[in-house]
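Case study B.
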Amino acid sequence: MSLSRADRQLVTLLRGCALLAAAIVLLILLFLVKESWPVLRHVALTRFVSDASWHPMDGLYKLTPMLSATLYSTLGAVLLATPLGIASALFSRYYAPSLLAGCYRRLIELLAGIPSVVYGFWGLITLVPLIGRLHPPGVSLLTGILVLTLMILPTVALTVDAALAAVPIAYLRGAAALGLSRWGLISGVALPAARSGIIAGIMLAAGRAIGETMAVLMVAGNVVQQPLGLFDSVRTLTSNIALEMAYATGDHRAALFVSGLALMSTLLVVVGTAELLSREPQHD
Amino acid sequence: MTKNSLATGLIWLAAILVSGVFFWLLSDILIHGLPHLSWSFLAEAPRNAGRSGGIGSIIVSTVLILAVAMVTAAPLSLATAVLLSEFTRYDSVFGRLVRSSLDVLAGVPSIVFGLFGNAFFCIYLDLGFSILSGGLTLACMVLPILIRTAEEGLQATPNDYRLAAAALGMSRSAALVHLLLPTAIPALVAGLMLGIGRAVAETAALIFTSGYVDRMPDSLFDSGRALSVHIYDLSMNVAGGDASAFSSALVLILLLLIINSIAMGLAKHWLHRGVVTA
Amino acid sequence: MNLIINPKKEPIDKTHKDEAYTLGPLQAGPPCCEPEPLIRVDKLSLHYGKKPALENVSLDIYKRCITALIGPSGCGKTSFLSVLNRMTDMIPDCRVSGNVHFDGRDLRHPALDVQGLRRDIGMIFQKPVPFPLSIRRNIELPLREHGMSKQADLNEVMQQVLQDVGLWDEVKDRLESSALALSGGQQQRLCIARALALKPKVLLMDEPCSALDPISSGVVEDLVQRLRGKYTVVIVTHNLAQARRIANYAGFFWIKDQRAGCLIEFGRCKQIFEAPAHELTAAYVNGNRG
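Model:
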């Protein structure tokens, strides 16, 4: 590249800024490790699973109840949100008349932007009493799952919508010319063609559910116990951090940072899988 | 044929269910939040832990936190986007490194940002619980969004401008400043709006960085409570705070509606402008 | 300095000391006889990645003459043009070998001031590329970038070049309006004016008329013809009749079997069209091939 001197100076400046931006993620990891170190120094990683319970004040650091809570709530939310999200995308793309489809899509986009605290608040005010009537108390794993479903549904719907939009129209025309019914066209051609995008969308939503803090904190009950039933009160990993950071010191605080690292690693795995799956070539 | 009808039925049912629940949510907030909403609510300070009074100081804190976040993140993200779009080959090692780290950054959950912000800004840099800490933490959060939209905006500018400017002996920086950036401005602002929308919805990252204090902040180093944090506090820790919480939630949603409409309006304008015909 | 623009269009030349490039009104110059070569190209080859685009091209561009490069699409004429003002630097994976000398200097030397070069060698693209700015800013921007700052000087140059390309009367009342609102032909003339404002020694034109309607095309071709004698012009064109009308010299390009372009024949325009030495040239100019 034939750059003038002014250009070269600009590039140096820009490179500095870009390096700064790129360094932030490293800085985050660095500080997570740094703050976890006090407890990692003398507590083996296995103890985070094998200890009797989570009582950091007494030196017990079992994270599994909270890991399970995170896992189950994410799983439940993904199981509910995936069909509803895909159905929403199919609705706006193939079933609804164009005006309705546009409105519906706008609605979903609006809901994607609503803060988690508003979802949590509404869940607390409306869903908790309802579930409570079913099986007291209202705060439970189920309520958490329902609120999480609401939150990740727009993510699934929007990414699946984008994946469906990328299906070449020639495929659909070809299928229609063969006399396939609308559902046949969708299940036989559109969905398989958009498969990698759909899977990526699900992974993205799962990642969001794992990382979600406020909404679940407000409706799931926050008792540290292994969830054995849908109506058990649970505390996720994220909610744990949010609740105890306020007063945690020393090893306790460091243990919270360890759970932060655990969260990051889980997410990296999910995001990594999503990346790999979305790069998979089409085999049809 | 019945499979087709079944599918059609189920899909319509799903759409009705989904939109039903969402309308239920939105109408709840509207119905319960509207009565309490007034100009005095927006201007007064909270009284009695927020049960009465208004959200004036909260709004000020929120605006300050957003301002700090945007003032820090916007130049940095623009610079990175310009580098990635104009001065880096797509397959260069440096470019891939920067892009990958930004992708990971985009996936970090907000609570982890809260942990990081607390450890780095509040404690290590000794800024304490302050608007500055909260704003800087949010800046880290919105950086990936701002960079991505800015880069897209720059890539959408016609390449002919770059070639014509080069053929006239203009430096790349001159072409950038006089031609490319002005053309990309609607996209840049749309991206900024998206970033603001994301930042204003943030709660978990702010609880341990900007603090809880609900009075009017004296300075950027003072603690301040953002709107989302206020809603959280009212609903979880303050008995009888629901009414105010509804109104605050309504304000927050209206704010987001406005921001998103601006962003979408600009994005459409940008799409039209980008199609320049000779 | 008293700027008097004589309505008979004889402004006073005061900004440029070099007598060869007066800011005079453009008229068709005298035909060149015994001109000297300004650009010497020797065994130029060009590769995009692994694909060869040009192979062993050698020719001379003569001063103040119009040289037309003719030949079918894809035989490297545009690539050849891009080498002359180092636009190939902007294409990744592009390798150039061979020698090009401009005014005695090695044009391909890595330490050459490329921005200065592009001021001396201007380029007009096939599709008119006016900047999304006002007409005035379109012309002033490159001038300012190259150091001219006094508004009076800028105004003078702008008026002169707009008069030269025949746009002045059409746009003098709307200099602040957007250049994008002009018609295709007007935009292309604006681009030529913009290039002329930098007082180039050479103008490279890549099919400047092909994206225009016939009337605008005629106007631009007229303008190109009037550049002869004052400017050195290298014009790539598909329009054989046009080449015949306006050029002094012509170079005929063709694609070899390996898909690389090469120069078949180069010489005075009259000779190429009326008595070509190579049979391929004869076939092409007579419409039998290509």
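The two ends of chain B are 52 Å apart (CA to CA). The remaining cases will be described in the next quarterly update.
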